[in-house]
Design brief:
The protein is mainly β. It has two domains: 54 residues; 408 residues, Porin. It is 11% helix and 43% strand. The strands form four sheets. It has a 16-stranded antiparallel beta barrel. It has a two-stranded antiparallel sheet with strand order 3-22. β14 and β15 form a beta hairpin. The radius of gyration is 25 Å and the shape is globular. The relative contact order is 0.15.
Length: 517
């Protein structure tokens, strides 16, 4: 070991000498030779270190789950459905089916220039940022009781935005114990509609006309995620976690680094919960079969920006069973799950539930298909009547909805790919979007993987949910989205002005930049 330290010290001195030589133009050729010599010495040190590691006796640890497993493997941070984006935070918690571990110990942007990933006392730090340029032809009418719709730019205008910044820390204390936490600074700009009286909706039985509110963009600092995971030595390893996670349904996720498109589908936004805070357990029965179950506070959604604190005296329950019949070469994963519990404020007797089914198929390394479908219901929903141009009476009763989206991605060349998504959402009673409608969208998103243009820089080591498709350090997405409804739910009216007429179609264009570090 002493000789190894001495060798490293010599290499460091040589590196310093090489850098000093680089500062002098007259010694450029000499500096090049010294750099080559340093690289060779580092390569020898790496080979020697590998031999020493192999000579050490293996440490006892739980069985590693297969590709379709959800049992945790906390030896490295990872990107999964439950935790944060791969480059945002390494959450060593339960691994969702078909997802892989994030390997932060090599091939990062810092390591590409010879520097280590930042860390203090064994903790690892990571982050991401998102910026965009947006255009909307019209905004969607979402009455205030149903939340709001994104308004990244005003109708027929363009807008530059700094959308989100995330920072996280994680640490693996032992093969059976790990923890992580993340904060997120997010600027969201949503807009909803209401009647002439903002407090009471449409007054009396007279004429009621919807109008947009004048909500300004809000910048919030969120306790985005946290996770403490213990792996109990039961069978293949029983994962026990407490924290805040993404709900492990489907392919789409809350944070942009984990999505192939710049926007999310109607199913993700309106049809199912997106986040959950509470207790989760996972177990890999076999490499092709995994199960997950949880008990959490409530249904968390970015549509209404619900907090993670509970809103009544009961809890919400859920789970997912995943199958991976094909895991060698091509990858096929499908699963079925559910979420159930009372979600109305201070009411414990009215339950909301949803059944979710998803399929992910990657027949080739460059080709991916994913599909998610939901059916949901809520007991005894009550909300006000809606005015023109989507006039509907007040509603009180059980509400139902269903929806699905299908997404495909093909990597044309190493640095360029294209994603296409179709989505449909049937809000049969208007409880989720505020209007009884069938909402559809067609989304086309070319993706330029900018970091792949850097020689010798590999992807992050993380993959998109339930796939082997790598996530890159820097992506540029140019998205066109066509929205259509069977009702006139889109308008270009200004805030506070009566919306006397609407349209059934809107167009969105977004240029989005996503940077992981």
């Amino acid at each position: 070991m002493r000789r190894l330290v001495q060798t490293v010290a010599v290499a460091a001195i040589a590196a310093f000498a090489g850098l000093s030589a680089l500062a002098c133009p007259a010694s450029a050729q000499s500096a090049t030779d010294e750099i080559q010599a340093i690289k060779q010495e580092i390569h020898k040190l790496q080979e020697r270190l590998q031999r020493l590691e192999k000579a050490q006796p293996p440490a006892a640890q739980p069985a590693s789950p297969g590709n379709g497993s959800s049992a945790p493997t906390p030896a490295a941070p990872r990107s999964t459905a439950a935790p944060t984006p791969p480059a945002v935070v390494a959450e060593p918690g339960p691994v969702a089916p078909g997802e892989q571990e994030v390997r932060f110990e090599r091939d990062t942007l810092l390591e590409a220039i010879g520097l280590p990933r930042p860390g203090i006392l064994g903790a690892r730090f990571s982050g991401f940022l998102v910026g965009s340029f947006n255009y909307n032809s019209a905004l969607q009418l979402v009455p205030e009781f149903a939340g709001g719709a994104p308004a990244l730019s005003d109708p027929d205008q363009t807008n530059f935005r700094f959308d989100k910044f995330g920072f996280a820390a994680s640490r693996v204390f032992a093969p059976w114990l790990s923890a992580s936490a993340a904060i997120e600074v997010e600027s969201h700009r949503d807009r909803h509609s209401h009647g002439f009286d903002p407090d009471f909706g449409c007054p009396g039985d007279g004429l009621c006309i919807e109008q947009f509110g004048s909500e300004e963009a809000a910048t919030e600092i969120n306790l985005d995620r946290f996770n403490m995971t213990v792996i109990a030595p039961i069978g293949n390893g029983l994962g026990l976690s407490i924290g805040r996670y993404d709900v492990p349904f489907g392919f789409e996720r809350h944070d942009e680094p984990l999505n192939l498109t710049a926007t999310t589908s109607e199913v993700f936004r309106y049809g199912r919960p997106q986040r959950m805070t509470g207790f989760q357990t996972t177990y890999s029965v076999a490499p092709w079969l995994d199960v997950a179950a949880w008990v959490v506070n409530r249904w968390e959604s970015e549509t209404t920006h619900d907090p993670f604190d509970d809103n009544n005296r009961d809890k919400s329950w859920g789970g997912r069973i995943g199958f991976t019949p094909i895991a060698r070469g091509a990858l096929l994963n499908f699963g079925i799950g559910g979420f159930w519990g009372p979600e109305q404020d201070d009411i414990n007797s009215r339950n909301r539930w949803v059944i979710d089914a998803d399929v992910t198929w990657q027949p080739l390394p460059t080709l991916l298909f994913a599909l998610e479908a939901v059916y949901g219901r809520e007991d005894q929903v009550e909300f006000r009547r809606r005015g023109m141009p989507v006039a509907d009476p007040a509603f009180a009763g059980d509400a139902n909805w269903w929806g699905l989206y299908a997404i495909g991605y093909y990597r044309i060349v190493d640095w360029l790919g294209v994603a296409f998504r179709y989505g449909v959402f049937d809000d049969m009673d208007g409880a989720r979007t505020g209007v009884d409608q069938v909402l559809q969208s067609w989304t086309l998103t070319p993706i330029v993987h900018l970091s792949r243009l850097i020689p010798d820089l590999r992807p992050t080591g993380a993959v998109y949910a339930r796939s082997r498709l790598p996530i890159d350090w820097v992506n540029m997405k140019l998205e066109y989205r066509l929205n259509h409804s069977n009702r006139s739910v889109f308008s270009d009216a200004k805030p506070g002005e009566p919306i006397t007429e609407g349209t059934d179609t809107s167009h969105q264009v977004q240029l989005q930049f996503v940077v992981n570090f």
